[in-house]
Amino acid sequence: MNMDSDLKDMSKEPLSPRRDTNLEDHPATKDQPSTSTSDVASTSHSDSNNIQELEQKYAAFVRHDMYGTMGRGPLPWTQKIITGFALITLFPLRLVLATLVVVLYYLICKACTLFAVPKREDEQEDYAHIGGWRRKVIFWFGRVLGRALLFVFGFYWINETYRNPDIDSKFDHELEVTEKSEESDRPGAIISNHVSHLDILYHMSSSFPSFVAKRSVGKLPLVGLISKCLGCIYVQRESKSADFKGVSGVVNDRINESRQDKSAPMVMLFPEGTTTNGDYILPFKTGAFLSKAPVLPVILRYPYKRFSPAWDTISGRRHVILLLCQFVNNITVVRLPLYHPSQEEKENPKLYAENVRRLMAREGDLKMSDIGLPEKRVYHAAVHGLFAQR
Fold this sequence. Notes:
two-stranded antiparallel sheet, 10% strand, 11 strands, alpha/beta, 12 helices
């Protein structure tokens, strides 16, 4: 899944010009004499100051766990022993089990989609329209095995708080259509803050919604078919047809379809457009709020003692390794009541998005930040540059 997909403007954004001069590289000249101890200390002190300035400016993307920036910070010898032991025992076991779970669900999806024709519209392709027993099998096994994957990754229990159980309990029975359910009680979309790729597994196990993903995800082995069964909305940066709707248009269609057809998958959106360290909430894109339908806000937090499951400056490979080497991982979830927009919010998607964001910040004890994906790219480039000089 694409962690940095932009729900509103899918074109690549240029890096923010707000770059401090102290972020520039300072390569040594070829004829430079041997470096003295004082020069080394001065350079180290300068790098430390640069990192501190970066962390203040881009606080929403800074890691605060034991492993530090990029997951490469110095560790006490006791933690090195624990991590090393987990690396040769726990890591391979979890990796094998996770692979088996993914392969099992792929085979289930393959069996359920055998002889089925995928729905193709506006350069999208999925099997979310499949009904009957096949949809039920895909839906329920997807939820069960999604939770199984979280268990394999060390999330043995999930602390969920339902601010309005009467509403939220209805979404546990997505396929059980009843005459008593009212259209106004079903959200147009589930709105969540974005911290880690693990967010997808939680929402998959909770309500099995459709996500926004890179088009390349649909072509991946195993995961590609699973994403099509989820009904993922693929990001197409360049339109190939004159009447291509774009992601926002497809999202609106899916939202309307979900509200009219109770068996259709709901849409799950990360309106921040990228991940944070879990302590902040970024400005929302308006694509999720253009349909004027009510939304269901969900707040995810990952309490930790050693390794933070947040996906910020750390590489994907290092993140997976350290995650699987942590014996116990934690996740807390706050599901807020259905948010019905006022008439003013319906006419102003930016106001609608900002009010939902402020509500989630208050209820989730999250700090509001005014930076976004362009600034994150600048921070990543700067941090990687500083570490490369060492």
